[in-house]
Every structure is written in structure tokens, then in C-alpha cells.
Write a structure and sequence with these properties.
Strand order of the largest sheet: 1-2-3
Structural class: alpha+beta
Number of helices: 6
Largest sheet: 3 strands, mixed
Protein name: UPF0260 protein soil367_10125
Number of strands: 3
Helix content: 10-25%
Distance between the termini: 35 Å
Shape: globular
Order of helices and strands: HHEEHHHHE
Family: Belongs to the UPF0260 family.
Radius of gyration: 16 Å
Length: 146
């Protein structure tokens, strides 16, 4: 049996696979395409989502096979989390690693997976499929709301 509020008592390394997976709030922000400035290394987020992101519910439609179907999909792990500085400040993985509390709208706190959309913290209604825009035009879709 998993502990209540396990994220407050366990490090990311100590979590079971189900606990780890349950941390994801379903915001979809990590599935938005990123552009890196070759000169200074800064990473910019676009409003263009991976073609496999369900834009209404913000879940991956090929989650189990995502690493095979999307060659540049990155798998978040406790080991590589520190490298992903571009993760949003509200990302539960980031918050737990920084020993910060989960937001009140997080499903593990409030009990509702839809709450994140109700409080406008996901990409639902704000993102477009990468298939809708030629890659040479992605720069025009850089956003600041992540």
C-alpha cells in the first residue's frame, strides 16, 4: 500500500514506478516543441505540441511506445531531471526535487484530474499540433506563458 502524500516523504529516487507516473499533472507543457538558440543555448518553448499529444486532455496518445514512435522524445528520470532546466516551475517532478509543495490544483492534492484544465494551468485550448505548421515557421510560435 502506497503512503498518503508519498511525494512529501519520498525522494524521486525512492518512488515506485506507479508513484513516479502519478506525479505527472497532465499539463502537456513538456510535450511542446522547444527551440534552442545556437549562440547562447537558451531554450524557447513554442505553442506547438508533439503530434501525439491529445490537445484537449493533454495526454500522450502513444505513451507506452512514445520513445520508439518519437525519436526525439525525452524520457524524464530522477537522474536526468536536473538537466531539464526548461521544465515549468509548476512541474511536480521539479517541485518534489526542489522539496516544494504541489499546487492546490494538482490531482494528487485535490483529487481531480480535470482541475488543472479548469484553472488554466495546462496547454488545453492553447496549443497546436506541430503538423499544422512548417518547421521553418516554428519561431513565430514562441510563447512566454509556460
Amino acid at each position: 500500500m502506497e503512503a498518503v502524500n508519498f511525494w512529501e516523504h519520498k525522494s524521486l529516487d525512492e518512488m515506485t514506478r506507479p508513484e513516479w507516473e502519478s506525479l505527472c499533472d497532465g499539463c502537456g507543457k513538456c510535450c511542446l516543441q522547444k527551440l534552442e538558440d545556437e549562440e547562447d543555448g537558451r531554450v524557447y518553448t513554442t505553442a506547438l505540441a508533439c503530434r501525439h499529444l491529445d490537445l484537449k486532455h493533454c495526454g500522450c496518445t502513444v505513451y507506452g511506445d512514445r520513445l520508439a514512435k518519437v525519436p526525439d522524445c525525452l524520457e524524464l528520470t530522477p537522474e536526468n531531471l536536473p538537466e531539464w532546466k526548461w521544465l515549468p516551475s509548476t512541474c511536480a517532478y521539479r517541485l518534489v526535487a526542489e522539496k516544494k509543495p504541489l499546487p492546490a490544483w494538482h490531482h494528487l492534492v485535490c483529487g481531480s484530474r480535470s482541475r488543472i484544465h479548469e484553472v488554466d494551468r495546462s496547454v488545453a485550448g492553447k496549443a497546436f499540433s506541430e503538423d499544422d505548421v512548417p518547421e521553418e515557421d516554428w519561431e513565430e510560435y514562441i510563447i512566454r506563458w509556460v
